[in-house]
Specification:
The structure is a single chain. This protein has one domain: Glycosyl hydrolase domain, family 43 (Tachylectin-2, Chain A), CATH 2.115.10.20. It has 294 residues and is mainly beta. The strands form six sheets. Strands 2-3-23-22-21 form a five-stranded mixed β-sheet. The protein has a four-stranded antiparallel β-sheet with strand order 4-5-6-7, with no helix packed on it. The chain has a four-stranded antiparallel β-sheet with strand order 8-9-10-11, with no helix packed on it. It has three helices and 23 strands. The two termini are 26 Å apart.
């Protein structure tokens, strides 16, 4: 999240102002998504399909309300879920019941360097990885930290030679990390995690993506959630960078001029779907986890 609202948000959501609440409007895309939505985390859905199909379109299957504090990233764990906010980490069980909370989880030396913003997260190799960002993008220096996925205790960090760090993903098979060099752009930086985060050649997307908020890697592809004009969900081939839109996030209803903000994404096969997208709706005091199937 790179914009937001109110006092509670200043710690967790990174907000500065409180917009007025006015009459809501609903787009056609919202109505289409709502037709396919089922409320409840234990709803039965068809999760079959080829997740690697480049022309596949996603369908909203299940939507579940969660704490509004879960406002940045989402990652699947072996026994539940992890969520992040600007200055917090949480672990929940499979039904999103909170189990562990860590407020201000970063050590002071990282905060002193300006790394006060936690972004999207991912779990791999027995660790929970979080993207860290400091605001002076001209430095060409960002960072990643990692935590114990069960206790959420801080374990370590590494600097990344890139301009921005809005989201990140770790390939669990190869332990290669992917993160956009810029919030709006085509260059995806790659790092060899098992070799001290050695930089690898970048992957270039076939089209520019804007407002990249979430990223995950699975089934031979990168999966993006973007807070762009269409709240787009995108797939990019890991080998070629060929990028296509595969749908839109499930919440497109504005409160006045304020839209819900698309946040992180997780790509993992569960009983409720394959793509799991976090959307923050601060004026409604909630966040949503939307499960999509192809």
């Amino acid at each position: 999240m790179r914009h937001g609202y109110a006092l509670l948000c200043s710690l967790f959501l990174g907000c500065t102002t409180t917009p007025a609440v006015t009459e809501s409007t609903t787009t056609d895309a919202t109505a289409d998504a709502a037709t396919d939505a089922t409320t409840g985390s234990d709803a039965s859905v068809d999760v079959s399909g080829d997740a690697s199909a480049s022309n596949g379109q996603v369908k909203l299957a299940v939507t579940t309300g969660v704490s509004m504090l879960y406002s940045q990233g989402i990652a699947r764990l072996s026994n539940g879920w992890a969520f992040s906010a600007k200055a917090g980490l949480w672990r929940t069980d499979n039904d999103f019941n909170q189990v562990v909370e860590k407020i201000n989880p970063l050590p002071q030396n990282l905060l002193d360097q300006g790394f006060g913003h936690i972004g999207d997260i991912d779990a791999a190799d027995g660790k929970l990885y979080v993207g860290l960002e400091q605001g002076d993008f001209s430095k060409g220096k960002q960072a990643v930290a990692w935590f114990d996925p069960q206790t959420l205790d801080f374990l370590g960090t590494v600097d990344l030679p890139q301009h921005e760090n809005p989201c990140l993903a770790i390939d669990e098979t190869t332990l290669i990390a992917y993160t956009p060099d810029k919030y709006h752009g085509t260059e995806i930086r790659r790092y060899d995690v098992k070799n001290a985060w050695k930089p690898l050649p970048s992957l270039t997307l076939s089209q520019q993506l804007d407002a990249m908020q979430g990223l995950d890697v699975a089934d031979g592809a990168l999966w993006f959630s973007c807070d762009d004009a269409v709240h787009g969900l995108y797939r990019a081939d890991l080998k070629t960078g060929e990028t296509v839109q595969i749908g839109s996030a499930g919440h497109l209803e504005a409160t006045g001029s304020v839209m819900p903000e698309v946040e992180g994404i997780d790509a993992s096969h569960t009983g409720s779907g394959f793509l799991h997208v976090l959307t923050n709706e601060p004026l409604q005091a909630t966040s949503w986890v939307d499960d999509f199937v192809l």
